[in-house]
Design a protein that fits this description.
Elements (H helix, E strand, L loop, with lengths): L1 E6 L7 H9 L3 E6 L15 E4 L14 H14 L4 E4 L1 H9 L4 E3 L5 E5 L2 E2 L10 H4 L5 E5 L1 E3 L6 E5 L7 E4 L3 E4 L10 H7 L1 H6 L4 H32 L13
Parallel strand pairs: 1-2, 1-3, 3-4, 4-12
Antiparallel strand pairs: 5-9, 6-8, 7-10, 10-11, 11-12
Length: 248
């Protein structure tokens, strides 16, 4: 089986998710969404589509036209209820493809490490227990947020932003946070997002120290989280999707 991974900046890669895909024998094809011919891309055949994060907004298609093509690609896949995972910008794109609004967060940027709170439907996704029981600090790095797509299950929240994880059945999952990050890759984030960190007046040495302390402890729960979700997503029948996402 194959997994198609769409990236928007090179350093926001699949991380521990990529390790789990390899352990399962899934061949990962990584495509740069910013420069690829997305219209010619077959996004329906892969067993899994993963859409990673990035520093632009879903609503900025006027400046970044490829976003509109990416949204169309996602809409076609989600309408069929095919296994799809979005992280940060990826989760926002998935929500937008299903008709939900995406917009700048009114409570400022959420950048740093904190634990998740269970959403009202957390029990519907058994994999979430790996991050919620006990709570595991995860990396948050976003300024935008979104409303849940109509009919979606609400899996997780933080005190700052409600929409942290959502799903349609076992096959479709959107994560606003970053469970995939690995300790040895975080320095690329600090450099790649240097302008954003400066504008938000984030203390980089303090953020680095938090990452050094908390990222290693995330690795085990994150791998178990991805493993359990993949097991369900890749084995669930197509009819699972109202589990099938319906476009608004």
């Amino acid at each position: 089986m194959a997994a198609l991974i769409l990236t928007h900046v090179p350093f926001e890669d699949a991380g521990s998710l990529g390790d789990e895909l390899a352990a399962r024998g899934l061949h990962a094809q990584v495509v740069d969404a910013c420069t690829a011919d997305l219209a010619a891309l077959d996004a329906l055949s892969p067993a899994l589509l993963v859409v990673m994060g990035g520093p632009i907004g879903v609503y900025e298609a006027g400046s970044y036209p490829f976003l509109q093509v990416e949204l169309s690609l996602l809409a076609a896949r989600l309408e069929r209820g095919l296994p799809t995972l979005g992280i940060c910008l990826g989760a926002q794109l998935m929500a937008a493809a299903l008709g939900a609004p995406v917009y700048p967060g009114r409570r400022g940027k959420e950048i740093g490490w904190s634990a998740l709170e269970p959403g009202r439907d957390a029990a519907s996704c058994p994999a979430m227990a790996e991050l919620l029981s006990p709570p595991v600090p995860v990396l948050h790095w976003h300024g935008d947020t979104f409303d849940l797509p109509r009919g979606a299950q609400h899996l997780a929240a933080t005190t700052q932003y409600e929409s942290q994880a959502w799903a349609f059945g076992a096959r479709i999952l959107g994560l606003q946070f970053h469970p995939e990050v690995k300790t040895d890759s975080l320095e690329r984030w600090y450099v790649g997002h240097a302008c954003e960190l400066a504008a938000a007046r984030i203390d980089v040495p303090q953020l680095r120290e938090s990452g050094q302390q908390l990222a290693p402890a995330l690795q085990g729960p994150a791998r178990r989280f991805f493993s359990r979700w993949l097991e369900g997503a890749l084995s669930a029948p197509a009819a699972d999707a109202t589990h099938s996402a319906k476009l608004a």
